[in-house]
Design goal:
single chain, alpha/beta, 42% helix
Length: 279
């Protein structure tokens, strides 16, 4: 896959890979990971699409300078510029977890205008699952803004985000998921600048249930696919079922025996559903 860079007007840099030819299809990964989340399914999709895999800001090879605000509005603006320049008009877009939240916010704010939208497991309008775990992460990330703690906390990621944790994100215990987490956190330990950026993001990212989205779903005029996993403890299927009732052009598909890392649990099924919907 070719590595390229998009430069946003405010100086932010988005690194991305692409493979294949055809209609542009961008896949936005989940929080804390990278474009490698999609690797198991890329070759199957590249037969029909120009597959574009960005690293979200703060992730992988993309921008992580503490001077940026890292609010959801900012992420949506940057990724909106990325989509317009790299994918062109009326692109096909899919996102998972934080990537899905950014896409949805971008669409609702008018920064992103896809021809078709795929939302994979994310919190949607519901309160996040495991709130204590998320609160602990948010508290630790925010503490990185304190001088001296930034380097210490970034080094602690070696203990918390181990390769074995990646395997636990796979419902089938795929050993390749260990490399995904290893790659995502390879440059984090000792990176005080990145730690300060994550502290800003932790303060700014919306918390709690986003119930206002229930009133905004009817505004999504494009076809929307909710592509869910049946064994993802972070994002229960009931969230997608409730959202589906409010989407005017929505449909729901469920990958069986798949967990958080759907591309590692069922790459064939994931590629099949994306190709069928984005066609």
């Amino acid at each position: 896959m070719r590595l390229r860079l998009y430069h946003h007007p405010d100086g932010a840099r988005v690194a991305y890979r692409e493979l294949g030819a055809g209609p542009p299809l961008a896949l936005l990964h989940s929080a804390l990971l990278s474009h490698m989340e999609w690797e198991p399914a890329v070759e199957q999709l590249a037969d029909r699409f120009r597959v574009i895999l960005p690293d979200l800001p703060l992730h992988g090879d993309s921008e992580s300078n503490p001077r940026h605000p890292y609010t959801l509005d900012w992420f949506a603006e940057v990724m909106g510029g990325f989509v317009a320049e790299v994918l062109g008009r009326r692109p096909l877009l899919a996102g998972h977890d934080a990537g899905a939240e950014i896409l949805m916010h971008g669409v609702l704010s008018g920064n992103i205008r896809p021809a078709r939208l795929v939302l994979m497991p994310n919190r949607m309008h519901a309160a996040p699952a495991h709130p204590r775990m998320r609160s602990a992460w948010r508290l630790a990330a925010r503490a990185a803004a304190v001088p001296g703690l930034d380097r210490l906390l970034s080094s602690a990621t070696r203990v918390v985000f181990t390769p074995q944790r990646g395997m636990r994100l796979s419902a089938r215990g795929n050993p390749a998921a260990a490399n995904l987490v290893r790659h995502a956190f390879a440059d984090v330990p000792g990176n005080s600048s990145l730690a300060r950026s994550w502290a800003k993001c932790a303060r700014a990212w919306p918390r709690g249930a986003q119930r206002q989205l229930l009133d905004l779903y009817p505004q999504l005029e494009m076809p929307v696919l909710l592509l869910w996993a049946d064994r993802d403890p972070l994002h229960p299927l009931a969230i997608a079922e409730e959202a589906l009732r409010a989407l005017p052009h929505g449909q729901l598909r469920v990958l069986q025996s798949a967990g958080f890392l759907m591309a590692y649990d069922d790459p064939v099924g994931l590629a099949r559903e994306l190709a069928a919907f984005c066609g």
